[in-house]
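We modelled the chain as a single entity of 66 amino acids. Its sequence is:
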Amino acid sequence: METYKRQAAFTEMKEFDHLSKPHDFMEVTLWHNGEGFDVSVSDEQRFSLSWGQYRALKKLVKEADK
């Protein structure tokens, strides 16, 4: 058995999204193996991305925003 501490970052959404509700938040937790991360958006959405998927997503968002 192995125990470890998780690396995570948390923020309330009100300073980033004017459509957010009063207690909306986002939390990112890094995978212990270093290959990606999990994202929780309030209690409504959860998803996981590898670092390669994240790089592709960033590129696609940048391309769509042209």
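As a brief sanity check on the tokenised model: The two ends are 49 Å apart (CA to CA). The chain has a mean pLDDT of 96.
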